[in-house]
TrEMBL record:
Keyword Transferase in record: yes
The protein, known as: L-carnitine dehydratase/bile acid-inducible protein F
UniProt xrefs under InterPro entries: CoA-transferase_III_domain, CoA-Trfase_fam_III, CoA-Trfase_III_dom3_sf, CoA-Trfase_III_dom_1_sf
PANTHER family: SUCCINATE--HYDROXYMETHYLGLUTARATE COA-TRANSFERASE
Keyword Transferase: yes
Length: 397
């Protein structure tokens, strides 16, 4: 099947999550991604278990589940870039590449002759993407950056978690390395933009992606509330600073989410709840009024929502086009009929495990959709094939 990025060669020198997430996105869209890994160890996340990928007999392998989340559709070659021979081989591969992605510390590849300036001189068409914690410039540039650290420094943890007056209050990170994932997506977008420029001018360029930059930019309405409204957003648990009601509510058998975005939806909710009078109450009739009188309204809603089960509420509210839903565990997510219908769970053949489950790309293209060609590779499994395809070296007998 034709893919959007057929013929694109990507040399992936990145590790852990942000860089591999970017290159997996490109690989899903058809790029030939060659992952350069340390001999004997590979990407750090291969060792980030348990849980471990199991072989066909159910025994643990040396590859963690974490590694599998961001490395499908890639080919692995083991190269020791600390040696002159390894450096020379990477330079040869970079000479054939369209894109190179790396997440070494600032200046870390210069000693090996694998920095942007060195490789741009060798291959002026190369799009070179560097991903670091703090970027290539500024007083923090030399520092190492990790997702958890950046969630704190970049403000995300100041708006995530229970409010200061609640029991258990305090800064809280998101349950996944979201800053890494967002940085990987921004890197993929930047790479595609740079390739468009390269196709017009023949010139590659250097992309400078910083986790901190991405985290600050991704605060969206919270940064606008601060920069425009002059407020310092605070932690509000599952509540929303600008919309009410837009949070979790208790039911007779658990919890549900109400995501009411306009006054019409609120009025319909009130009718279903048996309290139509709330919608005409001046304190609650508009979203601005509901935000102002949040402390009065939310307890009233909670008293009403506990009277029915989650399933009963969802059935009643969906019939009136009121946005709502359950709070699912991951086993419930993958059993959800919508998730099943969209084909979000996939499986790919693996030479050791037999099959590796994964999650489909959310990018849906009508003419050139993502194609799932291969499971995350065994360390170094494709070395000979890569050298043959990229450098024309003969395959060993």
């Amino acid at each position: 099947m034709a893919t959007a990025l057929d013929g694109l060669k990507v040399l992936d020198l990145s590790r852990v999550l942000a860089g591999p997430w970017a290159t997996q996105t490109l690989a899903d869209l058809g790029a030939d991604v060659v992952k350069v890994e340390r001999p004997g160890a590979g990407d750090d996340t291969r060792a980030w278990g348990p849980p471990w990928l199991k072989d066909a007999d159910g025994r643990d392998t040396t590859d963690a589940a974490y590694f599998c989340c961001a490395n499908r559709n890639k080919r692995s070659i083991a190269i020791d870039i600390a040696t002159p021979e390894g450096q020379a081989l990477v330079r040869r591969l970079a000479g054939e590449a369209d894109v190179l992605v790396e997440n070494f510390k600032v200046g870390g590849l210069r000693a090996y002759g694998l920095d942007f300036d060195s490789l741009h001189a060798l291959n002026p068409r190369l799009v070179y993407c560097s991903i670091t914690g703090f970027g290539q410039t500024g007083p923090y540039a030399p520092r190492a950056g990790y997702d958890f650290l950046i969630q704190g420094m970049g403000g995300l943890m100041s708006v995530t978690g229970r409010g200061d007056a609640e029991e258990g209050a305090g800064p809280q990170k998101v349950g996944v390395a979201l800053t890494d994932v967002m940085t990987g997506l921004h890197a993929a977008i930047g790479i595609l933009a740079a390739l468009r420029h390269r196709d017009r001018t023949g010139e590659g360029q250097h992309l400078d992606l910083a986790l901190l930059d991405v985290q600050v930019a991704a605060l969206a309405n919270q940064t606008a509330n601060h920069l425009i409204g002059g407020v310092i957003p605070k932690r509000m648990g599952n509540a929303h600073p600008n919309i009410v009601p837009y949070q979790d509510f208790p039911t007779a058998d658990g919890d549900m989410i109400l995501a009411i975005g306009n006054d019409g939806q609120f009025a319909r909710f009130c009718e279903v709840a048996g309290h139509a009078e709330w919608a005409s109450d001046a304190r609650f009739a508009t979203n601005a009024a509901r935000v102002a009188h949040r402390a009065v309204l939310i307890p009233l809603l909670r008293q009403a929502t506990v009277m029915r089960t989650t399933r009963e509420w969802i059935a009643a509210l969906e019939s009136r086009a009121v946005p709502c839903g359950p709070v699912n565990r991951l086993d419930e997510v993958f059993a959800d009929p919508q998730v099943i219908a969209r084909g979000l769970r996939i499986a790919l053949p693996h030479p050791v495990a037999g099959s590796v489950p994964g999650v489909a790309s959310p990018i849906r293209l009508s003419a050139t959709p993502p194609v799932y060609r291969s499971a995350p590779p065994v360390l170094g499994q494709d070395g000979a094939a890569v050298l043959a395809d990229w450098l024309g070296e003969p395959l060993p007998d």
